[in-house]
Input
Amino acid sequence: MSNTPAPPSPARRALAVAVGLFAVWQLVYIPAANLIDLVPRRTGSPLEPISDPLQRHGTFTTFEPLQTATDRAGAVLDFWSELSGQEQGWSLFAPGLPPYTVTPAVEFRFADGMSDTLLSPYEPADKLNPPLRAPLVNNRPFNVEAQFIYAVWYIPPEEVAGLYATPEEIAMLPEVYRALPEAARVWRGPVRAYLSWRLKAYREARPERPGPVEVILKHRYIPTPKPNEPRVWTRPVVERPYALWRPADDSYEVYDAVAKRFVPVGDKP
Output
């Protein structure tokens, strides 16, 4: 009687090869997906809401075949990231946090010229000693609000930039501001849904007030002390508008930080 094991079936061989190839692909994919972020690629608007916020945009070479190959390789890595659920959408502690916090707020403007502002429920009253927030409590609303600050996180107003940026960096801000209207246009659907939700909450809290004619999403830049600075800080909060919605006709405008006014947007920039 022979003790020689029976050879594996073709199906088992194919499964073993597939598992091995998958393991090899993952060993290639993981470092490649991280390294590709450091290589400038042509991937469309850097402020698209569904994208890798860490990816450098542009070109790194004038040799078109090499740039095209890199763009396509990056597209394959992006596709696999989304398909397999391995996409990384945040940078943890890199490249570093600015010395301020950004929170959204909603301003309501009425026909009689009066206005009122509804702050984020996550903006602490004591900004120097904010209380701890229980994890996983109201997590969904928190993340809804958080998505509206990504585009402006590293684009502060000049007043806030003056707290930490060099004069040369502040002089470059107007050019960076030009990207903000396009970002607000891309986010039009989520912004309008959020403003409608906040308007509903405001009406429930203030039923005696007439409906506002304009609802504005704005960002509040709250300076926060650096680790080596004293805790007693009296620097003011600086606000900047982002988008304007008129409930009556459902019109939508975005704030042009260069022209310092709201401008209408269409389906395309």
Notes: The longest helix spans residues 10-35.
